[in-house]
Amino acid sequence: AQSVTQLDSQVPVFEEAPVELRCNYSSSVSVYLFWYVQYPNQGLQLLLKYLSGSTLVKGINGFEAEFNKSQTSFHLRKPSVHISDTAEYFCAVSPRSGGYNKLIFGAGTRLAVHP
Amino acid sequence: DAGVIQSPRHEVTEMGQEVTLRCKPISGHNSLFWYRQTMMRGLELLIYFNNNVPIDDSGMPEDRFSAKMPNASFSTLKIQPSEPRDSAVYFCASTDQGLAKNIQYFGAGTRLSVL
User: B99 pLDDT exceeds 80?
Assistant: First the structure.
């Protein structure tokens, strides 16, 4: 079985400051890793994904994440945030094995960017 | 592509009434998921269809909930009778399990309020 822990339920930050949203996962098998963003009153949108290859992946809106296998982490970072980045961010994993594999989501981190 | 389309966006109903939520997945996708999102429980997977066949309905909370996918371009989630505790945002998502590496694309959701 897999599980995802997002260590911070809320992260307040000032505009133009850097931010890191933390995600740790547990799995007995190899996984794909995802970050989704949910803006107010909208559905979830894929921000970035790690499938294979380079452990540093870049996504939309200037976000990036680094897969650390030894620490089973997939933290999300942005060097300078904007007011428009205010949203809820979800980390998710999915087993790599074939067939039906559902996404297992973390509880979410609410990022609040203040002027 | 228009993305995953859900209707209605908002639904207000009285306890005991039947509620039907609708979803049109992205054309060509062969898998469809229904989720429920609440503050208390976060994102919960309710049911998963592959090639129009229900594969995993272990997340459906009780017999009052039912879901159908009569064809590749349409799915419904029905609650009968509805109860106040069913109030939540319901999301539909679709993917191509073969090619998309479990990347799910979400609709904008239906916000259900049961009074």
Answer: no
